[in-house]
């Protein structure tokens, strides 16, 4: 690797085919790269996030920074899964620890029937209420009405490494229609330190469909969002909508033509959230 020309890998996370899930850039050795250069590389790659890894002091530990084309984010789930699988492709499956701006994130990679699967364990999550005025403004920017929401899932901000506003649609048709005020929503989110909106619809007790507008990163919609999935798991547990231990299935990217599947595990003895998915190299 040179400072001017780092090796950039490309992986699709939460997918078993390169055309599915969420593509991420991965730089396995970002030693010597400045913040400005990382941002420039992320902009050149053009994906919602690119991860930059620097080997840590201990074995199988890495310092990781995540950049969208416009800004750095504290944590990114799909780029974490992509990076862990990229490492496993080179040195074999195992356990890695990623030191991120949000905290240390352990990631375990195993080989299964669908290829390499990475499972990340989130930092300590938290959930907070949202002022009614903020909900009203977010809905207006989305072009939603209050009647479009599912009253069983009140708006909240979930955090498991990054902040996400959770809004639940009452119907799949409402979720499928996404046409929002890009600049307005970006300003709204920056003012509240939000990374995405987590728009969800419940298909069954443990099955959800989700979409994530990401204008603060310069992207209309993130195709598969591991950090938001972790935050959503914490939200459901806090709300009492599910009881641990349980495993949730989140379908994302279908409306973009990039279907992905995220597995969210909640354990009774651990408040952290585990998110897992496969990843494959993009030729």
From TrEMBL:
Superkingdom of origin: Bacteria
Record-linked Gene3D superfamilies: Diaminopimelate Epimerase, Chain A, domain 1 (3.10.310.10)
Molecular function (Gene Ontology), one example: isomerase activity
Keyword annotations from UniProtKB, A to Z: Isomerase
One Gene Ontology CC term in the entry: cytoplasm
PANTHER family per UniProt: BIOSYNTHESIS PROTEIN, PUTATIVE-RELATED (PTHR13774:SF39), PHENAZINE BIOSYNTHESIS PROTEIN (PTHR13774)
Entry annotation: catalytic residues: 49
Protein name: Oxidoreductase
Protein family according to the UniProt entry: Belongs to the PhzF family.
Entries under InterPro entries matching the protein: Phenazine_PhzF-like (IPR003719)
This protein's record includes keyword Signal: no
